[in-house]
């Protein structure tokens, strides 16, 4: 499973994409990677959970978004802290323009994992009104009950104000340095 160095993080939680509207066509499956790519139904379940998480977070439905976290995350991230941090991010980032999961990276029993099982990193890119750059990943784990829950969220972002003070060359290198999906290595 690919590792990414975090340059800027909101907090050690998870972020995903918005859910399709009722009656809308489902999101297309993104690129698949890893050593344990499951069937299409499992892929779609993680994709739907990810977009659902983002929809809840973007709309300020913080209890619903928080409910997608695994017990291991809830042990250190309280609902109040999560809601405060997510609301602060939403206010600073502005209106979401797009969230897109571009890679699902699967691993069965990775050696660095705290518990055995199937893990998937949902790598995403996003656009917000006040951000020049935003990307990251949600790490999901299939628990004993068969449900995928978020065990980690990392995101990197650059606001427009900071970006305006950077040279074009510096701006061009940031997606790679942030570990954004699709950035040239």
UniProtKB/TrEMBL annotation:
InterPro entries: DUF4019. It comes from the Bacteria. Residues 1-24 form the signal peptide. Keywords: Signal. This is DUF4019 domain-containing protein.
């Amino acid at each position: 499973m690919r590792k990414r160095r975090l340059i800027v993080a909101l907090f050690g939680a998870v972020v995903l994409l918005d859910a399709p509207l009722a009656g809308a066509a489902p999101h297309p499956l993104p690129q698949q990677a890893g050593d344990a790519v499951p069937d299409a139904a499992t892929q779609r379940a993680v994709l739907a959970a990810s977009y659902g998480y983002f929809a809840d977070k973007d709309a300020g439905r913080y209890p619903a978004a928080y409910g997608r976290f695994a017990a291991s995350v809830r042990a250190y991230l309280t609902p109040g802290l999560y809601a405060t941090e997510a609301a602060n991010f939403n206010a600073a980032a502005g209106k979401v323009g797009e969230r897109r999961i571009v890679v699902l990276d699967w691993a069965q029993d990775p050696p660095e994992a705290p518990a055995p099982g199937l893990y998937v990193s949902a790598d995403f890119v996003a656009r917000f009104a006040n951000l020049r750059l935003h990307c990251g990943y949600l790490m999901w784990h299939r628990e004993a009950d068969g449900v995928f829950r978020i065990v980690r969220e990392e995101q990197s972002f650059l606001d427009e104000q900071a970006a305006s003070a950077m040279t074009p060359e510096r701006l061009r290198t940031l997606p790679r340095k942030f570990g954004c999906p699709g950035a040239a290595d």
